[in-house]
């Protein structure tokens, strides 16, 4: 399983987001400020800093998080190809805003819980309220969630919702007797990122999954919203063409977008390779139809892909993005 053609062909928004995330992470890392970018209760209600709020959406706080995060962002470019750059921009904005709201609410609840614990301790032990004595570390006051880890956790974990429901398993195999699929590697990268900073990263990950679930439920008909055309075209102008990729011409497109058209001389060429005409399995057609593709189009894609459901999926996603 892969995210379609290599590079960022037909995924300019994903390219811009990955570049912004990588550049800002390196920039703040060189300045030694990566560990201070995470969202906190003070940042949300007492000392609001817009630059820090924006930086916390893009910049990761460590190199391992950057590596796994960019890998997942790069893979999830397949969704931009599926729904188009305009709707994918809406998905990004919705995921970032909603997950950030959930994070702020969670920090508020945790702050209230911590204040309640402090009140109980001061009531039980009045001496600590009268003198400047720190609370013993073995008392049950969790300070690890004062600052959440930074990075596009909202977008990444929102993307796991459509990944789970819409991307089919194309290959299954066994390793040491354990049955795994080609999607397992993406899930492993997800778990690595989710537990990278323990509680500081688990909470943003959960908030991202909640945001992705709301988008899938089409709250406020969010999946129908589009940006104005001039905003959508901005990323296309900003994005450079991927090396080694030649943009397809309109004359070569057909029903499913990627099936090559042959000229008269090619059709008459006696040494032309035979066309694969084996009827696709009904199970493969049903899988593609369940993803929202037309039955006849899914069948043609499978024939062109020689009944490789993974390749057929990529063909159909590419045809929708063109």
From TrEMBL:
Recite the UniProt keywords alphabetically: Membrane, Transmembrane, Transmembrane helix
- Provide a GO CC annotation, any one: membrane
Name of a matching Pfam family: UBA
Q: Where are the transmembrane segments?
A: 12-30, 50-76, 88-110, 143-163
What subcellular compartments does it reside in? Membrane
Q: Which domain of life is it from?
A: Eukaryota
* Entry GO MF terms: serine-type endopeptidase activity
Q: Which residues form the UBA domain?
A: 279-319
Q: How does it sit in the membrane?
A: Multi-pass membrane protein
Chief location:
membrane
Q: What start-end ranges are recorded for coiled-coil regions in this protein?
A: none
Q: Which InterPro entries match?
A: Peptidase_S54_rhomboid_dom (IPR022764), Rhomboid-like_sf (IPR035952), UBA (IPR015940), UBA-like_sf (IPR009060)
Give the similarity note.
Belongs to the peptidase S54 family.
Name of the protein in its database record: UBA domain-containing protein
- This protein's species is Papaver somniferum
